[in-house]
Structure prediction request, 319 residues.
Amino acid sequence: MDLAGETVVVTGGTGFLGAHVVTELESRRAKVAALGRGDYDLRDRSAIDAMLVDLRPQAVVHLAAVVGGIGANLAEPGRFFYENARMGIELVEACRVADVEKLLLSGTVCAYPKHTPLPFREESLWSGYPEETNAPYGLAKRMLLVQAQAYRRQYGSNIVYLLPVNLYGPGDSFDLERGHVVPAMIRRFIEARDSAERSVRLWGDGTPTREFLHVRDAARAFRLALEIYDEPEPVNVGSGEETTIADLAMTVSSVVGFDGEIEWDPSRPNGQPRRKLDTSRASERLGFVASIPFDAGIRETAAWYEQQARPSPRPAPHP
Prediction:
């Protein structure tokens, strides 16, 4: 798909990943409509139909989602399932009816089974049930792959599905209750540093592993998929590097200058035991390989938070 001059709608286009995807598409001279929460209610089919009439896109990139960390998923599993499933299902059907040329859907690494053999291959997606703390969210997103492939078979719809890993970078949500692990850790360690705390207590035991991808790398993968990938098979998008939560905590604490102790709370859930993707399909089909080193990305993200987003530091306690 030659993006120059084409109208592309990006749902969630004012959000974390969406804003970077918009920048990537605009670099190819696409006419991008970045939709935020106040534009069209994607849970409402009539609102989606109105959006497609108003904007008449040649392509739609669906990034809008209800997301959060372990705590948020545990607190609102019904909402995470219902709203994510409904937004995607209604949008795909509306795009079919409106004859949108191409639709690019974002899945999630949370869709993989809890005990998937490493590295996660796309063929393993259906080999079991996701990790319990985020299964409703993961299954809602997994259902969109079923719909995409069914619509391709029956209607010839060109729907592409990517599976990104945990993203991080400037512009992320640093909310301690709803944010993901990297921004939450950055904020927690900075606040502990500024208030001269002697220790930081984190969920779990530090042994789970995660794979992290800088948001600009992820945005490039989405742009490449829109331009050159037209196949039914899902594609993992990641760095291919596995990091323990304990090592992540050490990296973040070092980057932000917190020199206290790191304590673990094993009474709180760890989440999925391990995550590491097989990224060979992305390399072969998209020509995509992650380019931003993890340590450099963490430094950039922490610096952005300190400069742009963090609240005023709490005063240090008197000795």
About this structure: The first strand starts at residue 7 and ends at 11. The radius of gyration is 20 Å. The chain is about 40% helix and 15% strand.
